[in-house]
Design brief:
Length: 271
């Protein structure tokens, strides 16, 4: 009887457990980045992710050597995702790392942000191939399910960013027939006043929509400029079917004094 009571209480506590998520553009491995090359940043990025101990980590600009570094460093995680140039290992990934002991992966896939989303392709006026990786996960204790999507929009194509929002909204609607909770992480390369972001906000909750521009921790892009905390807010976490407990941008420097990336990560605690 006592054992049954203990298990019941444990399950109830687990059901109210929070879901933690981070969106982080880690800056691709560019050998021309001077003191900000990946070799000087990787241990800081890995330490930050391990320390925060999130349930889900949506990363952007991850090339294969960086992915291998993170797989080795993040021992309590597994990941999903493919390289955008060949659907395997070539080009940038938009991987989702997840706590492998807490969540079971039920489904996963990647689609391209283009007119032909099921094929490797550039879309509309985009300068590069762009992708969205997603997974359906199940909490192994509570059996509750959640969809997680992670993306990185083009930095030049105006039409591409408009159409990419339409495509993601449409794809989520098609996949999420059971109306399960949804989390969308990504570098959208758009500021909050842009029409595509407004459209995302009309369908999903932007976890930092009410963050004032004069907040010292407002920005997510920093261009590795350590004299100020950043510039624009272009990195987002959107949710549906979940309550936001807290959300913030994390500002992390390397031992030599540079930013851990040219973007600051977005951290959110959900319930």
């Amino acid at each position: 009887m006592l054992r049954f009571l203990f298990i019941t209480i444990f399950v109830l506590l687990y059901q109210t457990d929070s879901i933690t998520v981070i969106s982080y553009n880690i800056r691709y491995n560019n050998p021309e980045d001077g003191r900000n090359i990946w070799e000087n940043r990787r241990s800081t990025v890995a330490a930050l992710l391990n320390e925060q101990n999130m349930d889900f980590v949506g990363l952007q600009e991850v090339v294969y050597p960086q992915l291998k570094d993170l797989v080795q460093a993040l021992e309590t995680y597994d990941y999903i995702g493919v390289g955008r140039e060949d659907g395997k290992t070539k080009g940038e990934f938009a991987p989702i790392f997840y706590k492998k002991d807490k969540y079971k992966l039920l489904k996963s896939n990647t689609f391209w942000l283009s007119e032909t989303p099921n094929s490797i392709s550039k879309g509309w006026d985009a300068s590069l191939e762009r992708i969205c990786t997603y997974g359906l996960f199940q909490n192994q204790m509570t059996q509750e399910k959640i969809w997680v999507f992670n993306t990185h929009f083009d930095h030049k194509g105006i039409e591409a960013r408009i159409k990419s929002v339409d495509l993601i909204i449409e794809r989520i609607k098609m996949l999420n027939s059971d109306n399960l909770p949804v989390v969308i992480t990504g570098d959208f390369n758009l500021t909050p006043e842009a029409a595509p972001i407004k459209k995302m906000q009309s369908h999903y909750l932007d976890v930092q929509k009410n963050l004032p521009e004069n907040d010292p921790y407002y920005a997510t892009s920093n261009n590795f400029n350590t004299e100020k905390k950043g510039g624009n807010r272009i990195d987002y976490v959107f949710v549906k079917g979940l309550k936001v407990h807290s959300a913030k941008h994390l500002y992390q420097k390397t031992p030599i004094g540079g930013w851990a990336s040219d973007h600051h990560p977005v951290f959110v605690k959900l319930q």
